[in-house]
Amino acid sequence: MKFSSTNQIIAVTASGIGFIDSVYLAIIKFTQNQNLCLKGVGDCWTVNNSSYSQVFGIPLSLFGAAAYLVLLILFIGKIRLPISTVIKDQLAFGVSLSGFIYSIYLTYLEIAVIKAICPFCVVSAIMMTVIFICTLLRLVHSQSEFTLSLEEKNG
Length: 155
Description:
Layout: H1 3-31, H2 44-48, E1 54-55, E2 58-59, H3 60-76, H4 85-114, H5 119-154
Antiparallel strand pairs: 1-2
């Protein structure tokens, strides 16, 4: 299997899992149904109801779902979107880098400030990390292909 197809499969899968995970967290937030949290595995309820779980009254899980949806569109719509592959890859890298950095911040908050770990938040952080690595590798790979094509043209 080629690098690009393996990378694509991993990125799409991680984006799909991240989207489902974020929507599930939003459902927990909106329904206030504590039974949806896994009993005995971390403390989803405390994290999801902390003051850090929303910005301007909007649950962070909705921002996460939107980010994963944008990434899915960029990955799946690779052929269909009327922008160049380079631009799509750069957009995906920017979104994933932002999500990766924010996930680090949120993980810090869980450990050091809230003192509770949400297993669904951990899944989201892992998925965003995987996507970030995929987009970084994609940029490095496309840059090396570009350099090789220039060398071939110039002799």
